[in-house]
Amino acid sequence: MLRKVSFQLFSLITLSAIFGFWVSTYGVNLILGVCSGIAIQFILYNAFTSVLNSIVILKNKKLENERLKEFSYQGLELECPCFKKEKELVPVRFNTPNYYRCRECNKQLSVIVTAETAVVTEPLLNADLPKLDLEKI
Fold first, then answer.
1. Tell me, what's the pLDDT at 62?
2. CB 111 within 8 A of CB 99
3. Is the Cβ–Cβ distance between 28 and 57 less than 8 Å?
4. Rounded to whole angstroms, how far apart are CA atoms 53 and 62?
5. What are the mean pLDDT values of the chain's consecutive 10-residue runs (137 residues total)?
6. Quick one: pLDDT at residue 63?
7. Residues 37 and 15: beta-carbon distance below 8 Å
8. What is the DSSP string of the chain?
9. What angle do CA 102, 107, 112 make, to 5 degrees?
10. Checking phi first, is residue 126 left (phi over 0); if not, alpha (psi -120 to 50) or beta?
11. What is the pLDDT of residue 129?
């Protein structure tokens, strides 16, 4: 930690001195050039960290959205049985009991998953049905 801080301080002073000497060749005061070099480095550092933080935040949001998308395949939108009827997306697993805590009433709730069967029907395609004569009706 101390090594990192000392390296950063050394690079700040060195780069500011180089900038100050470079600017002094154009007739600017050396101290003003060094102070300007320090200010420019701080501005560039803050801009760089702001852009980097924005990129990290966007990537985290993207990962969170993908996680929620995957989570929606394994979850159900359930309504709390309390009077507020708060709806939440709850993860459902079939190998463990499913419990969750309501955000509004803070009660622990259990999810009961039931299964039902249904007959799958197929639509009739190209069925030869008699045509109705609408004029006779």
1. 94
2. yes
3. no
4. 14
5. 87 90 88 90 94 96 85 78 84 83 87 85 69 64
6. 93
7. yes
8. -HHHHHHHHHHHHHHHHHHHHHHHTTT--HHHHHHHHHHHHHHHHHHHHHHHHHHHHHHHHHHHHHHHHHHHHTEEEEE-SSTT--EEEEE--SSS-EEEE-TTT--EEEE--------------S--PPPP-TTT-
9. 75
10. left
11. 62
Specify the amino acid at residue 11: S
What is each CA distance from 129 to 80, 124, 125, 126, in whole angstroms?
50, 11, 11, 9
Q: What pLDDT does 135 receive?
A: 66
Task: Give the separation between CA 21 and CA 19, rounded to whole angstroms.
Answer: 6
As given in the structure block, the two tokens for residue 93 are 């697993």
Task: State residue 59's pLDDT score.
Answer: 96
Q: pTM to 2 decimals?
A: 0.47
Strand partners, 108: 101
Single-letter code of the amino acid located at 36:
S
